[in-house]
Amino acid sequence: MPALSIHERKRLRQIGHALNPVVMIGSQGLTENVIEETNRALNDHELIKVKIAGEDRDARAAVIDSIVEATGAESVQKIGKIVLLYKKAAKQNQNLSNLVRFAHLSNK
Q: Which domain holds residue 44?
């Protein structure tokens, strides 16, 4: 997957600002179920927020790297315990895609 341009990242961050985390990674860490749920959310919504529990910054960074690798998504933005992930859906769902729902934000 080609890297996102600065303009695309900015647009995705604008949309991401309005989102709430849909996947929470707790003390269990990155399990098979968490990866499945993240993939499902990415397929449905294309752009999602993931919240990672824990105080260790390096451990959170490792979890982010692992989830990006496991899902094939791209990390758009990391702020504290929240990461914004983007993965283009093979077939965009007009009703669920955050890119469609919040398209008006990028037209400002």
A: 6-105
